[in-house]
Amino acid sequence: MKHAGPESLKTLSPLLEQLRRRAPLVEKRLGVYYLKSRAFLHFHEDPTGLFADVRLADDFERRPVTTRAQRAALMKRVEAHLAQLASPLPGTSRAPRARQTSKARQR
After folding, report:
1. Whole domain around residue 69: which residue ranges?
2. Would 32 be classed as within a structural domain?
3. Most exposed residue of 16, 19, 58, 82, measured as fewest CB within 10 angstroms of its CB?
4. What is the pTM of this model?
5. 105 domain-assigned
6. Contact criterion met (CB below 8 Å) for 63 and 51
7. How many domains does the chain contain in total?
8. Is the pLDDT of residue 101 over 60?
């Protein structure tokens, strides 16, 4: 299965735009997204359709993205994953406490 070419990526344009609006994701090349310094999502094409390889755990998971419904399902998974990364771990506070300067501690 080869990486998606420009014509295939053109058909995925609305999906690519949605991904570009997700702040933690960085598009390194057209249709190739990174999360922090790690590859997160890219696309493939073959005669059976278009697919996204997305890293929601340690390994990539292949998801079909040929139809609008499949693309919406992928975005739901991506958004849920990003929300999970943004939420604090159980037992931790939501916002880090402000550090006091040495002058503030002396008061």
Report:
1. 2-89
2. yes
3. 58
4. 0.78
5. no
6. yes
7. 1
8. no
Give tens-digit pLDDT for 10-48: 999 999 999 999 989 999 999 999 999 999 999 999 999
Asked if residue 13 belongs to a domain, the reply is yes
- Is residue 99 one of the residues assigned to a domain? no
Written as one string, the DSSP assignment of the chain is -EEP-HHHHHHTHHHHHHHHTSTTEEEEETTEEEETTEEEEEEEEETTEEEEEEESSSSEEEEE-SSHHHHHHHHHHHHHHHHHHHSPPTTS-SSPPPPPPHHHHH-
State the CB neighbour count (10 A cutoff) for residue 66: 15
Cα 67 to Cα 15, 71, 75, 98: the distances in Å are 11, 6, 13, 47
Tokens of 103: 């002058």
Per-residue pLDDT, 86? 84
Distance in angstroms (rounded) separating the CA atoms of residues 99 and 70: 45
